[in-house]
Amino acid sequence: MNQSSKKPVTLQDVAKHAGVSRATASLIVRNSPKISSETRKKVLKSMEELGYVYDRVAANLRSKSSTTIGIIITDISNTYYSDLLKGVHHTLEEIGYTVLLGVTFDSVEKQDQILSSMIEHRVGGIILCPVSESADETVNRLNKLQIPAILAVRELAGSNCDFVGVDYQAGSQMAVEHLIKKGHKRVAFLGGYRKASTWIERMEGYSLALQQAGIELDGSIVIDSVPTREGGVDAVRQLLSLPNRPTAIFCFSDLVAFGVVQGVREAGLKPGEDIAIMGFDNIPEAEIFYPPLSTVSSFAQLTGKTAANLLHQRITQSEGEKKRIILQPELIVREST
Question: For the chain, is the Cβ count within 10 Å smaller at the N or the C terminus?
Answer without folding.
Answer: N
